[in-house]
């Protein structure tokens, strides 16, 4: 065996490398990585174009919120469909929709037809497509790897996702600076093609039994809410996650304003801040495959959130650009443990029959929270200043963190019981 072959075989025996033993997951993860690079290239272009058109923090937050609100409205319905129908076929339809929308944005930009009103309309349409894709994306890894390799698969997915956050904004900044936003939009549209074709060559080898009931959307979605309500640890953790999303993730959507409005760094500063955030998240995501115990993961998340609060306070008060860059990396890194680590907890706790519905609710928090928070923080910054807005958000989250801290032990015990019950039902 060659040295390379030996290295690959050993990599597949330890840590996150275990997930690479599964061909379809590996192909799916790499295609998703390339698509996410394109997505972040487009996001960089969208937020920069919005800032150029408006010079408004509120508009930056409003753009993110406009897309997110459509995602939130659609996602519960999408989650129910995910539990009811063939997930792979739905994924193909969803990706075809995202590809079509990306192509439309590039064409309108090429003919200089985009105004701020059209831009808001386009992101709202994209939000609908994202609403269908998000629960599908979250339910795919458990169907591509066995349960014992799921932490490794999620760790790899998180690492690649955040590597895309590092590469995509930097590439987006270069493309926008040298070529213009049209080329950035075109790059994103092209990146969806590979992802779309991959969905035709993979198989869901570990497909769980999904619900085929037709009792009605509202009733089925309520079943997902009831499941969460009857699992105290899951309920408490989702409240904490909502707090993180609303109050500790708003900075990301406001990078264009922070770069140009505070530091005068233009699109280059936007690319640096966004890339630093992706780099910080990538480094922390590497360790996710090594944590399997619920109690330990919760403890790490709670400690990480303390670091995040300190970083957000420094970001709000510094007048040194490179200090802000470091804060962006720290904030994004800690958010990765709260977000992806939380996904690992949720995935290992819930039953397959309600997975799509529960993950759609989880996705609503992760997708809608940062955008809603950016809109609120951006609006508050518009009537006061960005420093006051960030400090207020940090204080409010500190109250939620203290409330959660009092019940971390009970939360961990509840999640452990839920995981054991899930395993028993699977036997």
Can you describe what's shown?
- There is one protein chain.
- This protein has a single domain, classed as Growth Hormone, Chain: A, CATH 1.20.1250.
- The protein contains 17 helices and no strands.
- The chain has helices at 3-11, 23-54, 57-84, 87-110, 116-139, 141-144, 150-178, 181-198, 217-229, 232-247, 255-262, 266-285, 294-317, 321-349, 355-383, 386-405, 408-426.
- Helix 10 packs antiparallel against helix 16 (386-405) and helix 13 (294-317) packs antiparallel against helix 14.
- The protein starts with a helix and ends with a helix.
Features:
single chain; 427 residues; mainly alpha; Growth Hormone, Chain: A; 17 helices; 81% helix; disordered N terminus
First and last CA, distance: 39 Å
The main β sheet shows up as: none
> Which band does the percent of strand residues land in?
under 5%
Form type: globular
- CATH topology heading: Growth Hormone, Chain: A
Instruction: Tell me which oligomeric state these chains represent.
Output: single chain
In DSSP terms (H or I, runs of 4 or more residues), the helix count works out at 17
Average pLDDT works out at: 81
Concise summary:
With 427 residues, this protein is mostly helical.
Question: SSE layout and pairings?
Answer:
Layout: H1 3-11, H2 23-54, H3 57-84, H4 87-110, H5 116-139, H6 141-144, H7 150-178, H8 181-198, H9 217-229, H10 232-247, H11 255-262, H12 266-285, H13 294-317, H14 321-349, H15 355-383, H16 386-405, H17 408-426
Helix pairs in contact: 2-3, 2-7, 2-8, 3-5, 3-9, 3-15, 4-5, 4-8, 5-15, 7-8, 7-12, 7-14, 9-15, 10-14, 10-15, 10-16, 10-17, 11-12, 12-14, 13-14, 13-16, 13-17, 14-15, 14-17, 15-16
